[in-house]
């Protein structure tokens, strides 16, 4: 599940640099035939599976959250892109408070260090105390 934060405006990543778990570069190609992703592994078409979102107001007396259970499936592997396409480079950085953490902060930026997107990711119930503590700790460190 992706967790988006509605009322978080000033994101400062300098305090969490030491918590970087992974960094990778993805290239997204926007075409008339769909969206494709190219990374160090392959070129694949992306299939989006949308689900309704849920809203939680005043989570831990501070944050308004959007919970998104939508998911992405990667389709067939392709050898080339359609001729008409727009390519976007996205640097995806994953942060976590410790190894094998159940909560990750995903930050997507471009090669100019402009923040494109950020969200938390977990498969756990966000009301479980350790999960809630990790979510609040990560959010307080970037705010």
Average predicted confidence as pLDDT: 93
Structural class by sheet pairing and helices:
mainly beta
Distance between the termini: 22 Å
How much strand? over 45%
Task: Write out key terms for the chains shown.
ten-stranded antiparallel sheet; Hypothetical Protein Pfu-838710-001; mainly beta; 1 helix; single chain; 143 residues; 50% strand
How is this structure best described in words?
It is a single chain. With 143 residues, this protein is mainly beta. It has one domain (2-142): Hypothetical Protein Pfu-838710-001, CATH 2.40.320. The chain is built from 1 helix and 10 strands. It starts with a strand and ends with a helix.
Outline:
The protein has one helix spanning 129-142; strands at residues 2-5, 20-31, 34-38, 43-49, 53-59, 63-68, 71-77, 85-95, 104-109, 115-121. It has 143 residues and is mainly beta. Strands 5-6-1-10-9-8-2-3-4-7 form a 10-stranded antiparallel β-sheet, with no helix packed on it.
Secondary structure: elements and pairs:
Elements: E1 2-5, E2 20-31, E3 34-38, E4 43-49, E5 53-59, E6 63-68, E7 71-77, E8 85-95, E9 104-109, E10 115-121, H1 129-142
Antiparallel strand pairs: 1-6, 1-10, 2-3, 2-8, 3-4, 4-7, 5-6, 8-9, 9-10
